[in-house]
Amino acid sequence: MSALQPQLDDLAQRLRAGANAVQDIAALEELRVRYLGRSGEVTLVRRGIGALPPAERPDAGKLINDAVAQMEALLDEAKARIARGALDEELERRIDVTFPAPEAALGSIHPVRRIIEEISEAFKQLGFATVLGAEVEPSYYTFDALNIPADHPAREGFDSFFITPELLLRPHTSPMQIRTMQAHRPPVAILAPGRCFRRDAVDARHLFQFHQVEGLLVAEGMHFGHLKGALAYLSRTLFGPEQRVRFRPSYFPFTEPSAEVDTTCPKCKGNGESCSMCGGSGWIEIGGAGMVHPNVLREVGYDPAVVSGWAFGVGVERIALARYEIDDIRRLIESDTDFLRQLQ
Questions:
Q1: pTM (2 decimals)?
Q2: CATH class entry, domain 111-342
Q3: pLDDT tens digit string along 60-90?
Q4: Is 83 strand, coil or helix?
Q5: Span 276-301, pLDDT tens digits
Q6: Closest of 198, 193, 191 to residue 212, by C-alpha
Q7: Most Cβ neighbours (<10 Å): which of 96, 152, 172, 270?
Q8: CA distance 130 to 215
Q9: Cis peptide leading into 257, omega within 30 of 0?
């Protein structure tokens, strides 16, 4: 019992010296564990109480508890000192409040959305209205009203996404052409942008979900020259004032005559010399077009002897590939912010 007090005083003195020396919370915690932890020096002293006579044990326990309280107070003081030092260090930092702040990171319109908006705004200048529709359409508006025969491959399950035998995810935005003509008498001038779905294998040039913009103009006296002028205007809006367009004969059930539409390659400017974008041809395809088929006009209650019309459809992602010189269409849907930031 007589040797216990000096032993506790020695522990307290050594702990005080250690507490005054530590400079961070981690070192202070190591010091606490060394003295007051489960296997610390104070614990070893407690275990010696069992060797004392029973009459001395309560007094010995009280001495140890008082010593522990003193040691804990020393540790608390050291902790408060370290905290004050950290605060003082933080307050001593000099901040130039007049220095320009870092530029805020802002989002931007997705390239696909930007192209749709540019096309819509350009044709708005020509008096076209933009119409939007559902992405799930009946077969009637998707095929029947567009003069697409019952045996056409697009009506098969391996080409389109059917939900029921009569409902499907629209493979084009043409249903909005039919709905608009049924709701309004000519003249009609609309753009129909939107998301479309086809059972295409995904690769560098194809997606099963993509965006399309279709245009339709029906009025008296419309002819193919008007269509060519509109598509030249579209091409120059997207790629620059020097763009030219050409038509290649094609076939679509809903137009007659029909054509594939090309524009001069925006990368080589139509030269075609060793151009990776156009393959040396000097031209890139941007969509399909033609004069609205008389059967389509009759289906919506128009008289093809009185009015005529033209229509076109372009793939927005295809345009983005050419406009931004992107090598893989899948990059447009990967949400890679570093890539998209380059296209702002």
A1: 0.68
A2: alpha beta
A3: 677 777 777 888 888 888 888 888 877 777 7
A4: helix
A5: 887 788 898 999 999 999 999 999 99
A6: 193
A7: 172
A8: 9
A9: yes
